[in-house]
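Thread: sanity check for a docking pose with pyridoxal-5'-phosphate

Original post by kr_44:
Hi all, I'm comparing my docking run against an independent structure prediction. Below are the sequence and the ligand SMILES. Could someone generate the full complex and paste the structure tokens? I mainly care about where the ligand ends up relative to the chain.
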Amino acid sequence: MNSNRRSWLKQIGLGVAGLTISRLETIASPAILSANEFIDDKPIRLSSNENPYGPSPMARKAMADHLLESNRYGSAQMNELIAALAQKHNLSSENILMGAGSTEILDIVARCAALKGGSFVIPVPTFAFWANMIEKTGFKKITVPLTADKKIDLPAMLAAIQNDTKLVYICNPNNPTGTMLEREQLVEFVKKVAEKALVLVDEAYIDFTEQPSLSNLVAENKNIIIAKTFSKIYGMAGARVGYALAHKDTIEQISQVTTWANGSSSVVSVAAAIASLKDEKFVKETYSKIHEARKYTIAQMEKLNIRCIPSNTNFIYFTLADYKKDYFDLLKRNNIWGTYIYEEQGKWSRITVGKMEEMQQFIKAIS
Ligand SMILES: Cc1ncc(COP(=O)(O)O)c(C=O)c1O
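Reply from moderator J.T.:
Ran it for you. Here is the predicted complex with pyridoxal-5'-phosphate included:
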């Protein structure tokens, strides 16, 4: 077998001819599987804010246990996951819409808000793939720059709202800057915006902070939608599970722009998500390892004259303005993925916080 094919087989891990129960047990066993086991000549992947430790041991076992149920639609598992999430957020099942990652949720909310045209307000830079998509339908984008310390400028966002504005997007903590808004200010802002338009709060990274979710606001307010994901702290980016929390009428309304509400994730992914919610040990360990590696990385980068914005997430935003080497070339030559360019023609970039040993290699590469 040539090495490309072998490495491809190793990467996919599942679904190959000859998959045996003992192989499944290997995959499910955290003691045997290392996160890198299937990948030869692997790059260091610091580009997409993934969790290098996941899926959690309990999630891996659930995936293996449910693989052979993939011939059936997974409504029963999905209902179980929705019930578990309702309990977690102290809401009811009617307050939840599931998607294939929170990307699908952002798309659905944007599509729904854009149905009657008008505009939406979004900070720059932020997580904006969905915005690029919806703009093409004629929904007008109104952008609002960040403050000098790279935070979302709430007064400016409020001032940017027009009579025809249907949607305002806030990512808290913000991607790519890693900055977080004060909760009290955010609550005040969200309530004010909700008098005029839908406000979508993306909490993809809030689990890396101590700040509570805004989920407590949705049952009382039809114009507030929270987007959440299993891709980050739960380490399930490739499994594609995310969800919206909103008033039950809002969930019903946004569900109209999707053909099969709650039908996008596989039975294997849903089973893993249910198990992930129970694996508190994994979440705590991820949290503390990421915090430790982040602290190390920022301290080392500052020594290299790379000024970093204080981060509340599993990534770091920094300026290359005073760094004299060719940062992007060094990454490329060291097989490190992380080339994201933002603001001031590439003076700002973002790097994901991986494992400590990955961050040590990253620092070595740019030193
Ligand atoms: C802020 C933010 N929201 C949403 C997503 C989408 O994540 P997913 O579709 O994997 O849930 C990402 C992915 O990186 C993100 O950074």
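Residues 282-366 form a domain with the Aspartate Aminotransferase, domain 1 fold (CATH 3.90.1150.10). Hope that helps with the comparison, let us know if your pose agrees.
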